Description:
With 156 residues, the protein is of the alpha+beta class. Helix content is 23%, strand content 9%.
Amino acid sequence: xxxxxxxxxxxxxxxxxxxxxxxxxxxxxxxxxxxxxxxxxxxxxxxxxxxxxxxxxxxxxxxxxxxxxxxxxxxxxxxxxxxxxxxxxxxxxxxxxxxxxxxxxxxxxxxxxxxxxxxxxxxxxxxxxxxxxxxxxxxxxxxxxxxxxxxxxxxx
Length: 156
C-alpha cells in the first residue's frame, strides 16, 4: 500500500506541475532538493524550460545524502561504495529499502542515485567538494553553490 500511495502522490504531483507550467509559461524554473514528494522525473515536465536546481546536500549522488561511510568521508567514484551504506541492515538500508524499484534495492546508475535522507552539506575534503561539477562534461549544467559561481567559465 505504501509504495502505491507514493507512486500515486508522485503521479499527481507531476500532473499538477505540468498543468501549472502550461498555464504559467515560465521563462525559467527554480527547483530545490527533490525531497520525498517529487523525484528527478519532474525534470521531464520542463521540456525546453531552463531550470536551476539548488542542491542542499548530496542526496542526488549519495544514498545517505552526505557522503559519509562509517564516520569517514566517502571519496569513492559515484556508486562504488553505495552498497556498503545501503546494505547494512538497521543502518540506512531499512530507511530506504522501500524506495527501490523492486522494494528491496535502491536505484543507482553512473549519474543518479535515488535516496531520501537529506542532511546539511559540509565539505570536509576536496573529494566531496563540488562533486556535481565532475559528473557533467557536456557543459550544459552550470553549478552555483550558495550564490557563488564556481564554474564561471561555463556561463560564457
